[in-house]
Amino acid sequence: MRRGSATVAGSLALVVAASSVLAATAVETPPDRPSKAAVQQSISDKPQKSPLDTGPLHPGDNHGESDGHLLPTRNNVKVIGKAPVSDRAPGRVADVTVFRKHAYLAAFRDPFCNKGGVSVFDVAKPRQPKEIGFIPTGPNSYVGEGVQVVHLDTKHFTGDVLIFNNEICDVPQPGTVGGATMVKVTNPANPKYLAQGFGDRGLTGSAFAHEVHSAFIWQDGRKAYAVLVDDYEAEDVDIFNITDPRNPRKIAEHNLAELFPQILQPGLEEVFLHDMIVKNIGGRPVMLASYWDAGYVKLDVSDPRNPVYLGDSDFNSPDPELLERTGLLEEPEGNGHYAEFTRNNDYIVGADEDFNPFGVRGQTDDGDTFPAVGGSATPPILPDDPLTGTTVYVGRACNTDPAVPAPPENGGPWLAVVERGICTFDEKVANVEAVTANGGYEGTIIFNRTGSDGCGLFGMSVTGERPAVSITRFAGFGLFDIEELYDEEECRAGTGTELAPIKLGTTGDFVTLTAFFNGWGYIHLFDNRRGKLIELDTFAVREAMDDRYASRFGALSVHEVATSRMHDGLVYSSYYDAGFRVLRIKGDRLRPSGKFIGPRGNDFWGVQVFRHNGKEFVAASDRDFGLYILKYTGRP
Fold first, then answer.
1. How far apart are CA 197 and CA 550, in angstroms?
2. Hey, where are the domains in the chain?
């Protein structure tokens, strides 16, 4: 939205290419990441490879495809100009930022992870934006959420700095970078690297920094700082002193869940940093961290080494938007993805991203029930098509583990129960689906591992031909009637048995997994106060809370919001296949005031406000096309 440690000087190559336009959309689900012990073991066993071989580690790694979009529409929104990226393709474009007379669009990993970086557009004439260059990142690296340009004036540096995140596809190649990269763009036509691939190296040794999902820069006095989202240690808030952006130094690493346990909410256990901004409010830098199921967390970072808790949000129960629109009583899903303060700082507007409009529940033949989460890119379990079968424990199902046993010869259907850990979800599911003897398995159930980042319910980035779901470790034990052997404290501490005490091939309960509609992700409005933030209102596009639009219309979740720099109560939002939306805050309520979906549909990722000749415009990034410049024409 807003939008190393080796220093490389010199101009960047300008890359121009052409491609055809195809339709695509987005999917984002919190995936697995290896435990610290697993990563260190990977390093010691295979020093020639990186722990990135374990696959996608963060929600932003899995924007994929779904079909369709809503019908074209336009209300109080004018398209001022637009321009494609030179190598446009499905899912090619990610985030966008604008600084002065230039827009910067992130080049995502799709369709091939070999051209990651940032496209540069001249927007001095908003009606005629023009691509003027491309700033590449390392091979097999790509850019997603973290694109921002700021002007720094510190005791060591003066100039305009572009920062972007680096995530990695597949096996790293020579020159692949993780971490974040900073580039001097005082002259955008002649950009120069300042620091490439800087970040936390705690788990990867000296080869490269941890992948970074997003990044943000702020200046405080004559010092400057960058905060990074660490894909490996996902609860961490990594802060670097970049007063000299050619030599960034890590000065802090904060786990907010440990520092401020009051932010945690029972029943919502997928807790990690997804994104953040920092804004000067009342003379002090205030960080607004989007901490997924822990909500939005407000911190005073005047001393980045010792952040001070100012406030945080909880998710109301039952889900208020779902209840208002459908009358359904369901638990909230969390998913605090991105938030901003309004111009006058009276409010906080948060975007909860959710790309699965169905929840999943399980029930055993013993009568026990448990929650489950569907895999990101496996066939969904639908309300009229439950998944049923007798469970079979097949271990961790990694390539280095004992082979996945075939189900019994008689009976069935069968569901493979897998323990999370060591290898990717893709590897586990592939090994289960490779079993064809005795009819094979109808689907896969993966239960959580031990450790501080394990035990509870979790989401997973996974591809497969048959349904796959994730469940808690306790529920996994319950499938084999050994609940009495589970100890929550030992599980959280990681001091219990690493592998479940279940013999390979053991059959368990008969399970029925059913789906229920719970809507797409939407927007929250909070009163900006100290302590617990009071939720004032919520907003979702109408179709996002209608089960008739749960498929065939693309992803109807919100992605990001941008608050106006000229008007206190104006909010812009990117809604993927539901297009661009404008909201007005009036009487502590979110009121829809504008919308746009083009004739062939849109798949908007980012939104960024900017001024030109005293007027406010919005840059929006279409994932399959490139840059749109829009203007709201309604009442402010």
1. 39
2. 59-302+310-357+518-632, 358-517
CB neighbours of residue 554 within 10 Å: 24
* Separation between Cα atoms, residue 524 and residue 56, nearest integer Å: 28
Tell me which residue has tokens 């062939």: 600
- Do residues 631 and 579 make contact, with C-beta atoms less than 8 angstroms apart? no
**Mean pLDDT of the 211-238 span:** 96
Phi then psi for residue 37, to 5 deg, are -65, -40
Query: pTM score > 0.70 for this model?
Result: yes
* Rounded-to-integer distance, Cα 307 and Cα 292, Å: 19
Condensed to tens digits (0 to 9), the pLDDT of residues 229-284 reads 999 888 999 999 999 999 999 999 999 999 999 999 988 888 999 999 999 999 99
Q: Are 193 and 183 in contact (CB under 8 A)?
A: yes
Q: What percentage of the chain carries pLDDT values higher than 90?
A: 77
Measured distance CA(458)–CA(292) in Å, rounded = 12
Question: CB-based contacts of 187: which residues, under 8 Å, 6+ apart?
Answer: none
User: How remote is the C-alpha of 362 from its chain's centroid?
Assistant: 26
Confidence of residue 487 (pLDDT cuts 50, 70, 90): very high
Assess contact for 191 and 162: CB atoms under 8 A: yes
At residue 114, the pLDDT reads: 82
Is 3.40.50.2000 the CATH classification of the domain at 59-302+310-357+518-632? no
Copy the structure tokens of residue 574.
């990117």
> What is residue 220's three-state secondary structure?
strand
Residue with tokens 């010792």: 306
SS3 state of residue 338: strand
Confidence of residue 206 (pLDDT cuts 50, 70, 90): low
Residue 174 DSSP SS3? coil
The residue type found at 497 is: T
pLDDT score, position 205: 66
Q: DSSP assignment of 415-446, as one string?
A: EEEEE--SS-HHHHHHHHHT--GGG--SEEEE
Amino acid code (one letter) for 415: L
Instruction: Tell me whether the CATH fold assigned to 59-302+310-357+518-632 matches the one assigned to 358-517.
Output: no
Decide: 210 and 202 in contact? Cβ < 8 Å: yes
The one-letter amino acid at 516: F
Average pLDDT, the chain: 88
Looking at the structure, give the CATH architecture of the domain made up of residues 358-517: 3-Layer(bba) Sandwich (3.50)
* Other C-beta atoms lying within 10 Å of the C-beta of residue 275: 27
